[in-house]
Design a protein that fits this description.
This protein is of the alpha+beta class. The protein has 16 helices and 32 strands. The strands form seven sheets. An eight-stranded mixed beta sheet has the order 3-2-1-4-13-14-15-16, covered by helices on one side. The chain starts with a strand and ends in a 6-residue tail after the last strand.
């Protein structure tokens, strides 16, 4: 059996030492690691990087194409929750992701989605009750119970959600959490139910509460949710209990970086280099029991060669001893994915997005002086870099008896169109934070049920953007000032079967047009996708109406 040799400075994370040497590989396994002062080679040799929580679907790429881009940045494995496609296609969607993942040497660990649908207050394409989740967990190709978003259900002892957690614990499989803003005794009770991690902390105090409760903290930096800066102090105080993740990463950012960016930031903050690499490799491998090598004799040869600590640029990536990326180029072959989908939406007109002002206020006849008293409305406030929103109470703008968007106040309309029931009414609300001065954005990536969500400055633009998505049976679109662009997402309305780099360029195009129309958000389409995610407070919109994640109930559009 031929022996492959890689020489350089060995970074032994487990023993916290660095030395010159050679890694000898045969049959995809590290047969020997030899210390040798004379060993010459470019850079540092260390374990490959792991994203401890990501939804592959959010890259808009199927698994094999995601892997093709990710290995360039030194990523060799992900802990992946397939609940996006599961909300569209159910177990068939989970099976699709696993099958597509087998087409690449990249190491995917897929979980059993715990919340399909995420809540009973929205329409999804499928449902996974406790019995279905237990069957998934019993499979060898399912590694853990994915994020338990129904934290109110856990705290009140809901039978279904607790049955899912119990099934995972019986099998000795980890349980991931999702409990934004949960503090104190509530956080302790949530952890005591058997939930081991959380990636939703947006303050340091919240993370410390959950650490005290025995949970591990996944430090997230993705396209929309950016919590790294707030949680970075934990890398110095609790490195053994931290991991890195992106959660949701659009293709434009995946082309540029992945977990390697988390590592660079931590090193720049002066965090101990061995602690940093442990958070990026050892901690997730051990917590989830991943079949990923950690640069030990007898381990799979999953390793990277980096140019140095200062720049931390990945020069080579190996999976089972196979060189899969070198000098910024992927060596994994392009593979076209199979198309699967469920999309029954029908074209819409501007009238579908109208809001009659008479439906807003029973006291519409009241006047102040000679002017009618305009109704108050509950408004979602989107926040840059966060998935949480705020609730605002603003006066509606009324024209010809209808409440309309008012771009001069950054008061836009938001709508959710049911993609599974073509004759369902459109849910409409109001939102601030997107900054559009004209036009509209629409997306069939709308967590977690993936109906069509849209934000716009007028009803005609909303209809045009939504219809572009419907015409392609899924995608992200932008219309305004005489321009129209769309990135089709033929796979479940979530992913493209095209080349990943081409998808990234197309996404950059729609993102650029959205910003030219006035949006100041770093990632307007990623933020838009989360405006329908009811389990993250406070105010969101489902296909059934305005919902408060804090009050766990629908809210009226009118606020007296």
């Amino acid at each position: 059996m031929p022996v492959q040799r890689i020489s350089g400075r060995i970074v032994d994370v487990l023993h916290r030492e660095e030395y010159p040497g050679t890694v000898e590989i045969a049959g995809g396994i590290i047969r020997r690691i030899r210390r040798d002062r004379r060993a010459l080679g470019p850079g540092l040799i260390m374990p490959g990087l792991v994203d401890a929580h990501i939804h592959i679907e959010s890259s808009m790429l199927p698994p094999a194409e995601f892997a093709r881009l990710a290995v360039v940045h030194g990523t060799v494995a992900t802990v992946s929750d397939p609940h996006e496609i599961a909300n569209v296609l159910g177990v068939a969607g989970v099976n699709y992701m696993i099958a597509e993942g087998h087409r690449t040497p990249f190491k995917f660990c897929f979980g059993a989605p715990s919340c399909v649908p995420a809540t009973p207050f929205e329409t999804a394409g499928a449902a996974l009750p406790a019995r279905a989740v237990a069957r998934l967990l019993a499979r060898k190709d399912i590694g853990y119970l994915a994020e338990v978003m129904d934290f109110p259900g856990v705290l009140r002892g809901g039978r279904e959600v607790l049955a899912k957690i119990a099934a995972a614990r019986r099998l000795g499989k980890p349980v991931d959490g999702h409990a934004p803003g949960l503090r104190g005794r509530a956080a302790a009770a949530y952890a005591a139910a058997g939930i081991a991690t959380d990636h939703e902390c947006f303050t340091l105090a919240e993370a410390k509460d959950k650490l005290r409760a025995g949970m591990k903290i996944l430090i997230r930096e993705g396209s929309a949710a950016r919590n790294y800066a707030a949680l970075a102090p934990l890398l110095k105080t609790h490195p053994a209990d931290c991991m890195f993740c992106c959660d949701d990463l659009h293709p434009d950012l995946l082309v540029r970086s992945h977990i390697d960016a988390h590592v660079r930031r931590a090193l720049a903050l002066g965090v101990n280099r061995f602690d940093v690499i442990a958070c990026a490799s050892v901690n997730p491998v051990r917590h989830y029991g991943l079949a990923v090598g950690l640069l030990r004799e007898g381990d799979p040869a999953d390793l990277i060669v980096v140019d140095g600590w200062k720049n931390f640029r990945v020069r080579r990536t190996y999976l089972d001893g196979r060189l899969v990326a070198a000098n910024g180029r992927s060596r994994l072959p392009r593979q076209r994915a199979r198309i699967v989908n469920k999309f029954r939406a029908r074209a819409r007109t501007a009238a579908d997005f109208a809001v009659e002002s008479s439906g807003l206020s029973p006291s519409r006849s009241r006047r102040v002086g000679t002017k009618p008293l305009l109704p108050w409305i509950n408004v979602i406030e989107a926040l840059n870099g966060q998935l949480i929103t705020r609730r605002l109470r603003l006066r509606a703008k009324v024209v010809a008896g209808k409440a309309v968007a008012d771009p001069s106040r950054d008061l836009l309309k938001i709508a959710v169109v049911n993609r599974y029931a073509p004759h369902a009414p459109v849910a409409v609300g109001f939102i601030r934070g997107f900054g559009l001065r004209a036009g509209a954005l629409a997306s069939s990536v709308a967590h977690d049920s993936h109906n069509i969500v849209a934000v716009g400055a007028d009803d005609a633009s909303l209809a045009a953007a939504v219809n572009l998505v419907i015409r392609h049976r899924g995608g992200v679109s932008v219309v305004g000032r005489g321009k129209r662009e769309v990135l089709p997402l033929a796979i479940a309305g979530l992913m493209s079967a095209d080349d990943g780099y081409a998808v990234a360029r197309s996404y950059t195009g729609v993102d650029r047009l959205a910003k030219r129309l006035g949006s100041k958000l770093d990632a307007p389409f990623m933020t838009l996708a989360f405006m329908a995610l009811l389990v993250i407070p406070d105010l969101k919109l489902s296909d059934r109406g305005l919902f408060s994640g804090t009050r766990w109930a629908f809210q009226p559009l009118l606020e007296e």
